[in-house]
Amino acid sequence: MNPEAHKIVEELESLTKTAKASEAESQSWSRFIAWRAARLQVILAGEQAKSAEKVERQTNKLIGLTWAIVIFSFALFLLTAYLCYDAYRNHQNHNFTNQSTTEQR
Predict the structure, then answer these.
(1) 3-state helix/strand/coil string of the chain
(2) Number of structural domains, the chain?
(3) What is the predicted pLDDT for the residue at 58?
């Protein structure tokens, strides 16, 4: 969190604890506390915006990596299908060759 935000939070905590003043001073304390609270909200909104941008970038990166995994998996599937077909053809050729040699004997 922003160091200024920490400072304001600590200041507001101490001010609310020591805010036992007369009614005339009460309005000025209230304005001051309201002003500090508003400043804190502005700081926190800025921090939230930065955090949202960071999460957005990470989400986009994660989506890209997920698509890379999908493409890689599909390529592995195609390679496996080709290798299975090749093994099947080799097996069929081997059986045909064995049948031909047995028939010739």
Answers:
(1) CCHHHHHHHHHHHHHHHCCCCCHHHHHHHHHHHHHHHHHHHHHHHHHHHHHHHHHHHHHHHHHHHHHHHHHHHHHHHHHHHHHHHHHHHHHHHHHHHHHHHHHHC
(2) 1
(3) 98
